Each structure stands twice: as structure tokens, then as C-alpha cells.
Amino acid sequence: MAPPMAFVASAPLVRRTGAGRSALDVTRRPLSALPARAARRTLSAAKVSMADDTLNDLLANNLEWSKNMTAQDPEYFTQHVAGQTPKYLWIGCSDSRVPANQIVGLPPGSLFVHRNVGNVVSHSDMNVISAIEFSVKVLKVRHILIVGHDYCGAVTAAMNDERVGAIDHWLSHIRDVRRRHAVQLSKIDDYEARRDRLVQLNVLEQVHNTCAMSAVQSAWNEGQPLSVHGWMYRLSDGLVRDLGFRVDGPEEIDSVYRTVTPRAAEVPTGKGMLAEA
Ligand SMILES: [Zn+2]
């Protein structure tokens, strides 16, 4: 699809900084406001970039979105520049069909998001460790949502023993879940149902892993309200299922993962999430 002419005339400029590096000039200026040489350069750049319809579409969409949101609320963007106070941390799959903010209808500033292949929370992944630590310790999120989804390519590959390449190392986290629950999974004859169950079990294990993170344990030990939830999103109807895996404190996770002493007022229930599965 060809970009609208208004966009071509206001294409972003790529300029050279003093250090000789490229920098994207995001201020869109009409061609009439530019010196003749700069205008020719802009038109030339716009022609080149028009060859790549996809990126032009994205930039045009962005321009339209920014205009629309500002028209609806002049402070829609400026209200966020001072900082963020999201109540939720979303840990989900990178799958393009699972857009976090859209699914739960939250605007910018409301949802801190970490996504990776298969919504894995690995104890050796500094990326997810950092996301959890920052959101819990600094932003003081109230809820952590671990969100799996049906038809997940990562879960499918883990279930089918497909070998893809370097990503196999990452998928080993999900293969471990499959191995840990092999007996339960073997009792499900239907392939789709078995795969859905592995998605759920993977969420459950990642809830467990999240609860074991030092930032989460420390928050609970200091009395900070924090709940970890397990959800499953269905592509076919766009609805989230609460899987009922919710942990509100260290007394609710298996003792093997517990590194802090439950507070006196909290009596251990003895229920293990794996038993509930
Ligand atoms: Zn996925």
C-alpha cells in the first residue's frame, strides 16, 4: 500500500551528527520549511524508503496513531514523560499474536512487559531477572502475570522434539517441564489437548520460578504486597483464562523454593502448586 502523500512530504530525516554517526531526526518538518538542498535530499530518501512499503506503512500508522491519541487527549503522551507507575508486570511469549497491552486493554504506562520465546522465567536469564527486579523493587508492581498461549510454537517444538538450532538450548526449559510432567501428559490422547496442557504446565512452572526469584522473595519478606498469577491466552477467541495459579506469599510455594521464613501471621497451608496441577 502506498503511503499517503502527506507522509511522504513529511518523511523523517536521517542526519549526520558531529561524531559522524547517523541519528534519526524524529521531528517531522514540511518540505516547504526546509532549505532546497535538504528538501531534495528528503524527497530522495522518501523515494528510496517507499520501496519498502512495510516500514512506510508502520511510520504512517504511527503518525496517525499519535495524532488520534493526542486529539482525544492532549496529555495522552506528555503525562508519561515524568515516569511510570504500572501496577502489573506481564511476562509473556514473544509471539506476534499475543499483544500484551491490547489483550488487557491497558494504555501506555500501565503494564511493564517482558516477552521471550515461550514465556520462560529462567534463573540464569539476566534479562528476565532484571525485568522482575526493576519492576518489583523500583516500580513496586502489585501483580506479576505469567501468560502462556495456545498454538505456541515454542511449546509445540518442545513437545514434538523438533530440533531448530541454537534456540533448542532455550527450549530445553520447556522440555524439562514436559519431562517433569510426562506421566500426566501421557494420559492425554488428544494432541491439541496435550499441547494445551503443556502450555498450562509451563505457565505453572514459570510461576514457580518467578516466586523463587530473590526480588520476589525479598519483597514478600519485607511485607510488600505482591501476587504472581498464571494465565493462558487463547488465540481463537482473544480471551484470557485464569489458570488459578496465584501465589500471594512465600508460604504458598513448595518449601524447596522457599528461601525466607513465612511471617508469623501467615500459617503455611502446605498446599503445593504442583499437587494442584
Ligand atoms: Zn508462544
Automatic annotation (TrEMBL):
<dbReference type="InterPro" id="IPR001765">
    <property type="entry name" value="Carbonic_anhydrase"/>
</dbReference>
<keyword id="KW-0479">Metal-binding</keyword>
<comment type="similarity">
    <text>Belongs to the beta-class carbonic anhydrase family.</text>
</comment>
<feature type="binding site">
    <location>
        <position position="152"/>
    </location>
    <ligand>
        <name>Zn(2+)</name>
    </ligand>
</feature>
<keyword id="KW-0862">Zinc</keyword>
<feature type="binding site">
    <location>
        <position position="93"/>
    </location>
    <ligand>
        <name>Zn(2+)</name>
    </ligand>
</feature>
<feature type="binding site">
    <location>
        <position position="95"/>
    </location>
    <ligand>
        <name>Zn(2+)</name>
    </ligand>
</feature>
<dbReference type="GO" id="GO:0008270">
    <property type="term" value="F:zinc ion binding"/>
</dbReference>
<comment type="function">
    <text>Reversible hydration of carbon dioxide.</text>
</comment>
<dbReference type="Pfam" id="PF00484">
    <property type="entry name" value="Pro_CA"/>
</dbReference>
<dbReference type="InterPro" id="IPR036874">
    <property type="entry name" value="Carbonic_anhydrase_sf"/>
</dbReference>
<dbReference type="InterPro" id="IPR015892">
    <property type="entry name" value="Carbonic_anhydrase_CS"/>
</dbReference>
<protein>
    <recommendedName>
        <fullName>Carbonic anhydrase</fullName>
        <ecNumber>4.2.1.1</ecNumber>
    </recommendedName>
</protein>
<dbReference type="GO" id="GO:0004089">
    <property type="term" value="F:carbonate dehydratase activity"/>
</dbReference>
<dbReference type="GO" id="GO:0015976">
    <property type="term" value="P:carbon utilization"/>
</dbReference>
<feature type="binding site">
    <location>
        <position position="149"/>
    </location>
    <ligand>
        <name>Zn(2+)</name>
    </ligand>
</feature>
<keyword id="KW-0456">Lyase</keyword>
